[in-house]
Design goal:
By secondary structure, the chain is mainly alpha-helical. Helices cover about 85% and strands about 0% of the residues.
Amino acid sequence: MAEEKKKIQKDAHKKIAVDCFNSVWNLMEKKDRTIDEDDKMIHLAHASRFHWGEIGTPVEFERGEWQISRMYTVLKRHEPALYHAKRCLKICRANEIGDWDIAFACEANARAYAVAGKKAECEKFLELANKAGEQIKEKEDKDYFFSELKTIHI
């Protein structure tokens, strides 16, 4: 009975984490968000990361941190964007998470520094992101990564 309860709880955390993550994307892409939708987006991003924190692996943890950072850059809030970008990179490095994830961790830092108006730091992370991006194995993933990297403007 206890194992069944744990599975139900794990499944619930996963469903909520995924649903919140996807809802954040929908809101980030919305052109005419209201302030209430901005607030909702913040809460959803943190809720997704919380639920992954309950049942996920370091990969889900760092992807959650990445999404939170990205969401804050969309809102032009550099301080929390930088905090979560640094967390993302730290989780990748501590757990030897490479490929697409480490590249996007560097991208998150570059983007957050760009929003902060810190050109030298942004350029440093753009260089790291470019190097990491070259290591992405799948061509489609690599192409997508570099298309996203091009959207960072200092």
